[in-house]
Design goal:
This is Leucine-rich repeat-containing N-terminal plant-type domain-containing protein. It comes from Populus deltoides (Eastern poplar). Keywords: Leucine-rich repeat, Repeat, Signal. This protein is of the alpha/beta class. The chain contains 4 helices and 13 strands. The strands form 3 sheets. An 8-stranded mixed beta sheet has the order 1-2-3-4-6-8-10-12, with no helix packed on it. A 3-stranded parallel beta sheet has the order 9-11-13, with no helix packed on it. The two termini are 17 Å apart.
């Protein structure tokens, strides 16, 4: 029997991430799908045009040489065209509501603060990968139907906010490759989260692993600064199939309940 978590991290069943098993379509693959004779919602087009104006009026705090500006990103966003044909916009095939927005790879440093409210009530996927935003956008709290959120590679500092656990529809959250250093105290109310996939790989998170939503099946906390023992609270994650805590500073024995789950963990 493996006695210590550091050993287990390298040699046991609690090992590696398995993207091939993921049921999520990578947000970077979302694209626009125009359909002849159908058009996007006028209110959602208005919201996107307002977003374009907000981003055009704001000034980036810094430039990233290999990234295009927000202006060049939005050249296809024109009032006299169907927003479902616009670059980086994904619409539902039948309803034509905007369900996906992919702004990955563009320098939005200093611009997200100008977005006070994004009136896209049917938005399910938001991709802001490698946008140099530096913080988790507060407007995300108002996207009640959001299912997938990818904020990886963004130089995000500070704590993982507790309101993240109150987004009832959110299933996939990627905050990897940032500078997050802690979790805010969990909300006093019961978790409302439907979160199944949480990726916090390669951050600076210190302390112990907090209590997490029981819906989680994929959890990566690898390459952080976590300390202490593996909490028994992880045993309540009955759907957990992938767990990665490699390259931390944790010690102590593996909770027996996780050893029992070893046959179902990857």
């Amino acid at each position: 029997m493996i006695g210590y978590w550091r050993i287990a991290c390298c040699f046991s069943f609690l090992l590696f991430l398995c993207p091939a098993n993921s049921s999520f379509t990578p947000l970077s693959q979302t694209s626009s799908h125009p359909f002849l004779g159908q058009h996007c919602s006028s209110s959602e087009k208005t919201a996107l045009l307002q977003l374009k104006r907000d981003l055009s009026a704001a000034k980036p705090e810094s430039s990233i040489p290999f990234q295009p500006s927000s202006g060049s990103l939005l050249t296809s966003w024109k009032p006299n065209t169907d927003c479902c044909s616009w670059e980086s916009v994904n619409c539902h095939e039948v309803t034509k509501h905007v369900i996906g927005l992919n702004l990955s790879g563009h320098n939005l440093s200093g611009l997200v603060n100008s977005i006070k409210f994004l009136n896209l009530p049917y938005l399910e996927r938001l991709n802001l990968v490698n946008c140099n935003i530096g913080e988790i956008p507060s407007f995300v709290q108002k996207l009640g139907g959001l299912v997938e959120l990818d904020l990886s590679i963004n130089k995000i500092h500070g704590k993982v906010p507790k309101w993240i656990w109150l987004l009832e529809s959110l299933v996939y959250l990627n905050l990897s490759n940032n500078f997050l250093d802690a979790f805010e105290a969990p909300p006093s109310a019961p978790f409302l989260s439907s979160l199944t996939s949480l990726d916090l790989t390669s951050n600076l998170i210190e302390g112990s692993i907090p209590t997490l939503p029981i819906s989680i099946s994929f959890l990566s906390l690898a390459k952080n600064k976590l300390t202490g023992e593996i909490p028994v609270s992880l045993c309540s994650l009955s759907n957990l199939t992938i767990l990665d805590t490699c390259y931390n500073y944790m010690s102590g024995q593996i909770p027996k309940c996780l050893e029992v789950l070893g046959d179902t963990l990857i």
